[in-house]
UniProtKB/TrEMBL annotation:
Domain of life: Eukaryota
AMMECR1 domain span: 1-193
NCBIfam families, A to Z: TIGR00296 family protein
Pfam families the UniProt entry points to: AMMECR1 (PF01871)
Name of the protein in question: AMMECR1 domain-containing protein
InterPro entries per record: AMMECR1, AMMECR1_dom_sf, AMMECR1_domain, AMMECR1_N
Length: 193
């Protein structure tokens, strides 16, 4: 499903944006831009032998791949509020991951998912009674070494929950699990394509 060609398209979009060129790049070979998926685009930067997150934003509504990948390549590079916008000097150390989301299932129990297999999306009420949401892609809990409970607690914090997290709070979340088909491409690989 997700392919290196999807990552090439994201790099093309980023490079065009950094150069002030309208992002109307042609579709790579074997890329059907009319397919629709919920998707996320993630940028990482190599730093001291490790990949460091530089931006990750996506959408749970199915979008045409040509539109969605272009939009979220730029949005995750320049509008992820956790980070400064990506600068041209970072380009050679970047890598791109495209995650196409599939197999959404609402579950009754907040631990009814598998670390490394499922992404989790939660809805909950914050301390003021306002509905909030948060998600982690399937690889996040595994990469962080988190248990299911630690993942839910981190999602609650990510979503802005500020009070003490109790078992009652965890059980009150509405959880949707999903899977992801992911492709990854480094800048060096991009330049070789």
């Amino acid at each position: 499903m997700a392919t290196k060609q999807h990552c090439v398209y994201c790099f093309d979009s980023l490079v065009a944006h950094l150069n002030g060129i309208p992002s109307t790049n042609p579709l790579p070979l074997n890329f059907d831009g009319t397919l629709e998926y919920p998707l996320f685009v993630t940028w990482n930067k190599a730093s001291r032998g490790k990949d460091k997150l530089r931006g990750c934003i996506g959408n749970f509504s199915a979008m045409r791949l040509d539109v969605g990948l272009r939009e979220y390549a730029i949005t995750s590079a320049f509008r992820d509020t956790r980070f400064k916008p990506i600068g041209p000097s970072e380009l050679p150390r970047l890598s791109c991951s495209v995650s196409l989301l599939t197999d959404f299932e609402e579950v009754a129990d907040y631990v009814d998912w598998e670390v490394g297999k499922h992404g989790v999306w939660i809805e909950f009420r914050n301390e003021r009674g306002r509905k909030e949401t948060a998600t982690f892609l399937p690889e996040v809990a595994k990469e962080q070494g988190w248990t299911k409970v630690e993942t839910i607690d981190n999602l609650l914090r990510k979503g802005g929950y500020e009070l003490t997290i109790t078992e009652e709070v965890r059980r009150s979340v509405a959880l949707t699990r999903y899977q992801s088909k992911k492709a990854h491409l480094s800048y060096d690989e991009y330049m070789d394509m």
